[in-house]
Design goal:
Blueprint: E1 2-14, E2 23-38, E3 42-49, H1 62-74, E4 80-87, H2 97-112, H3 119-130, H4 136-141, E5 144-150, E6 153-159, E7 166-172, H5 178-183, H6 191-210, H7 216-219, H8 226-229, H9 236-245, E8 250-253, E9 260-264, H10 268-281, E10 286-291, E11 299-300
Parallel strand pairs: 3-4
Antiparallel strand pairs: 1-2, 1-11, 2-4, 2-5, 5-6, 7-9, 7-10, 8-9
Helix pairs in contact: 1-2, 2-3, 9-10
Length: 301
């Protein structure tokens, strides 16, 4: 017996400035995952596109771990797993490539085993693998999400903004592991910095919910993680400043980086070019992509 399904999962940007480990947005950049479960023993994994030479093709692959987690959870046994991944999301750049792989594996395996698990269960399983829900929540649900952990369970709010905006993702040529980007963070921060981020995060969600996007220039400010990660990304402050000077609503580090993200309603190409130019001054080659909000999350194709 053999069953096959294909899933499309959006990339994501997390944190959005002050919303560290809590705020995420699904973006119109995608990874496709095709899963075949069969009685024929063995594991086969084929990767094309982004990260094709870097992604492990064995049981350590996070998509394989996610698939096996679902099979164990629902009590289904398949001797054979065949996986094909077509990746558009850059690897280790802060656009949710690992979250997309995890969510793709979970959703595909759940569909092939009778769709027995709820979205909430899949979210908690994805969070258990990823470590935090800020990327996996929008990858599953689409839109903008605010997520928290409560007694080991992920709780979320999902919404779409009343006013459209786009995002310019500037992608440097180098990658940056989340592990390294977390290693530079302090164990504690000054009380004033905590207050600063609480107020900015509240303003960020209020701005997005009401469509008062003119407030993003202030709402995207952060003191919890971006100042500590800035030394890992040459020219980061100048690139963010170039985005604002070129007309962006605001700009921030995407996830753990090194991608930098500008929020825009117009002049997207001009803003992207200005950010790339600012990186070039610091001898960093970069490209940019224009992204919108993905409203659907992971879907069957």
């Amino acid at each position: 017996m053999e069953r096959t399904i294909r899933i499309r999962v959006p990339g994501t940007t997390a944190n959005c400035g002050p919303g560290f480990d809590a705020v995420g947005i699904a973006c119109t950049i995608y990874n496709d995952l095709e899963l075949t479960l069969s009685d024929q023993e063995g594991l086969s994994l084929e990767v094309t596109g982004e990260g094709a030479r870097a992604i492990p093709a064995d049981e350590s692959n996070v998509a394989v771990k996610a698939i096996q987690m679902v099979l164990d959870k629902v009590g289904c046994q398949f001797a054979g797993i065949k996986l094909k991944m077509v990746n558009e999301i850059p690897l280790a750049r802060g656009l949710g490539s690992s979250a997309a792989a995890i969510v793709g594996g979970l959703v595909a395996a759940n569909e092939l085993t009778g769709n027995r698990l709820t979205r909430e269960q899949l979210l908690n399983m994805a969070t258990a693998i990823e470590g935090h829900p800020d990327n996996v929540a929008p990858a599953i649900l689409g839109g903008i999400t605010v997520s928290i952990m409560d007694s080991g369970s992920a709780k979320y709010l999902r919404f779409l903004p009343p006013r459209n905006f786009s995002m310019v993702a500037v992608i440097p040529e180098f990658n940056l592991s989340t592990k390294l980007a977390r290693k530079v963070l302090p164990e504690s921060v000054p009380f004033a910095d905590a207050v600063f981020n609480v107020s900015r995060t509240a303003l960020l969600i209020g701005s997005l919910c009401t469509g008062e996007l003119n407030l993003l220039v202030h709402a995207l400010e952060d003191r919890l993680h971006q100042p500590y990660r800035e030394p890992l990304i040459p020219g980061m402050a100048q690139v963010l400043a170039a985005a604002r000077q070129a007309g962006a609503l605001g700009a921030a580090l995407s996830g753990a980086g090194p991608c930098l993200l500008a929020f825009v309603t117009s002049d997207a190409d001009e803003i992207g070019q200005a950010m790339v130019k600012a990186f070039t001054i610091h001898k960093v080659e970069a490209t940019y992509k224009l992204l919108d909000i993905d409203c659907k999350g992971a879907i069957i194709i």
